[in-house]
Amino acid sequence: MTKLELIENLTIRFDHWKNKDVKEAVYTTFEEICHTLESGNRVEIRGFGSFSLHHRDARIGRNPKTGEKVQVEAKAIPYFRAGKEMRERINDSYGNTAIKK
After folding, report:
1. In terms of domains, do 37 and 49 share one?
2. Does 26 share its domain with 73?
3. pLDDT mean values, one per 10 residues, the chain (101 residues)
4. Owning domain of residue 51
5. What pLDDT is recorded for position 101?
6. How many domains does the structure of the chain reveal?
7. At what angle do helices 3-13 and 19-38 cross, to 10 degrees?
8. Is the Cβ–Cβ distance between 60 and 89 less than 8 Å?
9. What is the structure's pLDDT at 23?
10. 48 and 93: one domain?
11. Are residues 55 and 95 in the same domain?
12. d(CA 27, CA 12)
């Protein structure tokens, strides 16, 4: 699902809200999550999951094309971990639908 599809689905579900207001709410929510992570904090949405940062140290990498050694800077990687309720809900629905290979 894309951000646009999310906005459209919410607009249909909550037909008493204006599309503009739904769009603003979705964008504001995502912006707040990003700002919180940028400041080094964690975001936890009970029943849904949590967003945090995983830190990677600087290292010497290798350019796969040339084989040349390259310095890779330290960085923070955004990480999402699904909450217990979400995992259980997905696993319950997954178990009810047989997937054939």
Report:
1. no
2. no
3. 95 94 96 96 95 96 95 96 93 69 46
4. 44-100
5. 46
6. 2
7. 130
8. no
9. 96
10. yes
11. yes
12. 17
